[in-house]
Amino acid sequence: MMQALTPNMEDYLELIYNLEKEAKVVRVRDIARGMKVKMPSVTSMLNTLGEKQLVNHEKYEYVELTEKGAKVAAEIVHQHEVLFNFLTDILGIDQKIADEDACKMEHAVSPTTLKRLIQFMEFMEFCPRVGPDWLGYFNKYCQAGSSKDVCVRHMKEFLKEYTDKITEIEKSDGDG
User: Fold this and answer.
1) Most buried among 45, 68, 118, 159, using CB within 10 Å?
2) pLDDT over 90 at 132, yes or no
3) Is residue 82 within 8 Å of 123, Cβ to Cβ?
4) What kind of architecture, by CATH, is found in domain 1-122?
5) Assessment of whether the complete model's pTM goes beyond 0.85
């Protein structure tokens, strides 16, 4: 099993992943610019990541993620995106601040908390309207995973509850 990655290693992998998506070719100087460090620091980190079989890099050559490195980096990027979306879409935080905070949060919270937050955000996107018992539904979602059938059933229950509530309010307004 691979030894845990440091936050700095994760940041490098995330940057390399994003640079590969943008430019297809990643150079040491591109990484140095993105990380705001000098090129020898990048080379040192690339050697460390290479030892973990996460990147391929030969001196004076391009940098590329290995299959294993791409998988790890994709997960890091996904986590960052979920945290960023939570901060911007749910809490209304400015995008620049949200991006910086998402990066900090990736490294500051436990893997258990991060996993649950990601599940919560995915749940909110997958099944956004589940009525007053949504936390109970969320716990079921975490245990069983997503199911469109279950989500549709919960939406119908939600709709019925609110239709009944609207009818009740309309009747009470007519009495006054």
Assistant:
1) 45
2) no
3) no
4) Orthogonal Bundle (1.10)
5) no
